[in-house]
Amino acid sequence: MTKAAAAIRPVDTPTEHFDVLIVGAGISGIGGAYHLSTQMPGKSFVVLEAMADFGGTWRQHTYPGIRSDSDLYTFGYRFKPWVGAPIATADEILAYLGEVIDENGLGRHIRYGHVITSATWSSEASLWTLEAVHDGQVRRFTAGFLWMCQGYYRQSEGYTPDWPGMADFKGRIVHPQTWPTDIDLADKKVVVIGSGATAATLVPNIADDCAHVTILQRSPTYFVPGRNENDLAEQLRPLGIDPMWTHEIVRKSILFNQAAFTRRAMEEPEVVKQELLAGPRAFLPEAVVAEHFTPTYRPWRQRIAFVPDGDIFRAIASGKVSAVTDEIERFTETGVKTKSGKTLEADVVVTATGFNLNVLGDIAFTVDDKPLNFAETITYRGMMFTGLPNLIWVFGYFRASWTLRADLISDFVVRLLRHMDAKGATKVEVALRDEDKGMPLASWIDPEDFNPGYLMRNMHLLPKRGDKREWRHTQDYWAEKDELPTIDLDDAAFVYSGVHDQRRATARKAG
Fold it and tell me: What is the 8-class DSSP label of residue 298?
């Protein structure tokens, strides 16, 4: 037991019971709370959030320039119009989420500063029991249904590889996920390691303050530069059209275009690649584009980020920023030495090198007295799992906005809860049907389809997928938007049991 754990003392407070317990008050959890409160107002629920306030990613990340890398018409909720620029700052997104909470009275359902340490399922009682630490004391909750909206990465730390010589470096090493409030980059030489959306966002927002910024990347990434405006929205707004209509029309237009782009990326990858490379070519010499902005993988095997007004390319063109495509041999006292022999001098090194995957919120799960090995389960459409009753996990899309799937799954949860009530069931789990038994199993995501580093490093922690559509997370919003609402809840993949009276009696006894 750690010293921190030893200092936590359980308190003699009543166990609180809710019909549904939502884990996380980020964009998924707030959306789930909205849908539950509006579609099933008779259900009691609570949202437990580890941080001191709502927002998740947008509260945690405070590095300069933090913004969305996809448009807010689709990253925002379907039920609340977005009226700003498509690519939004963290502050703008937090304001939007705060309005959802205030406008719908969700604040009374959210408990902040509750770090969940354990979740235990009892089939006898058809109940989840969760323990959470709040202000150094243990609080206990029971719930009939658990809705995991905690996201997919560990908020307490980012991923930084262990390079040789890091201890020798005399400067400062920081990760954007835990950006220090006391850092001063004025007139500093800064090396930013990484090639993703975080690096592309951070670099142009610090370049003017620094003596020089060097982007050090192992391999290039695709980016799409453009004006931070949506032409269709700009045409509709002056007409005085209902904002909900504008929101819906713009969403449908964006999603239609994204579907076509995704299809073309699969069917004619070389053509799409050249179209994407036209972006940096508009700002930079061909030699720079060829060396530093021409990925070796086909489009959409990793996420493609939008860069407003091509700001990262403009920063390079200005001379304030340079790009180096190479691998790190080691850190030195004064910077970084690459495998090709380059020495990059630095006062500060920023490791924009990704996330540590968070599997079910790093919570210790137990099912009927047996510790859960999540990797041994098989996923049903990337949201339910064999051997894990009364639980939904929200894991969004890579090629479309995360929130699109959060909204779809919210509707599914409501349908499932209503179906359970109609059947008088208190337990539902997914199980392989006769026709599914013996099907080949593979990793959660096909690396040939999508292969970001944070997934590849942690694939062994995630559930398995089958070779049938029901038993995998397809990442295909354009199919799922029609499939999820029509799932047959009486299909043999869903196994129901339990009675309501037994669970209520157990909850009263626990309380």
Answer: P
Question: Who's near 234: CB < 8 A, 6+ residues apart?
Answer: none
Write down the pTM of the prediction: 0.92
Question: CA-based angle 51:444:415, to the nearest 5?
Answer: 65
Nearest-CA neighbor of 349 among 481, 165, 508, 79? 165
The per-residue pLDDT for range 184-231, each reduced to its tens digit, is 999 999 999 998 889 999 999 999 999 999 999 999 999 999 999 999
User: What DSSP string runs through 121-132?
Assistant: EETTTTEEEEEE
Other C-beta atoms closer than 10 Å to the C-beta of 286 total 11
Q: How many other C-beta atoms are found inside a 10 Å radius of the C-beta of residue 444?
A: 19
Cα torsion 33, 37, 43, 45: sign = positive
pLDDT band, very low/low/confident/very high, at 131 (cuts 50, 70, 90): very high
- CB-CB neighbours of 395 under 10 Å: 20
Q: Report in angstroms the alpha-carbon separations of 193 from 222, 287, 305, 353, 375.
A: 16, 21, 17, 7, 31
- What is the distance, to the nearest Å, from the Cα of residue 292 to the centroid of all Cα atoms in its chain? 27
CB half-sphere exposure, 414, CA atoms < 13 A: 19
3-state secondary structure of 183: coil
Task: Please state whether 369 falls in left (phi above 0), alpha (psi between -120 and 50) or beta.
Answer: left
Amino acid letter, residue 380: Y
> Any residues with CB less than 8 A from the CB of 192 and at least 6 apart, and which?
199, 202, 203, 213, 214, 215, 216, 349, 350, 352
Structural domain 3-155+357-510, CATH architecture: 3-Layer(bba) Sandwich (3.50)
Question: Is the CB of residue 216 less than 8 Å from the CB of residue 191?
Answer: yes
- Measured in whole angstroms, the distance separating CA 366 from the mean position of its chain's CA atoms is 24
Tell me the sheet residues that pair with 306: 224
CATH architecture group of domain 160-353: 3-Layer(bba) Sandwich (3.50)
Nearest of 390, 365, 397, 385 to residue 441 by alpha carbon: 385
Q: Which helix (H) or strand (E) holds 19?
A: strand 16-23
Kindly state the tokens that stand for 491: 């299909």
* Token pair listed for 447: 């690396």
Residue range(s) occupied by CATH 3.50.50.60 in the chain: 3-155+357-510, 160-353
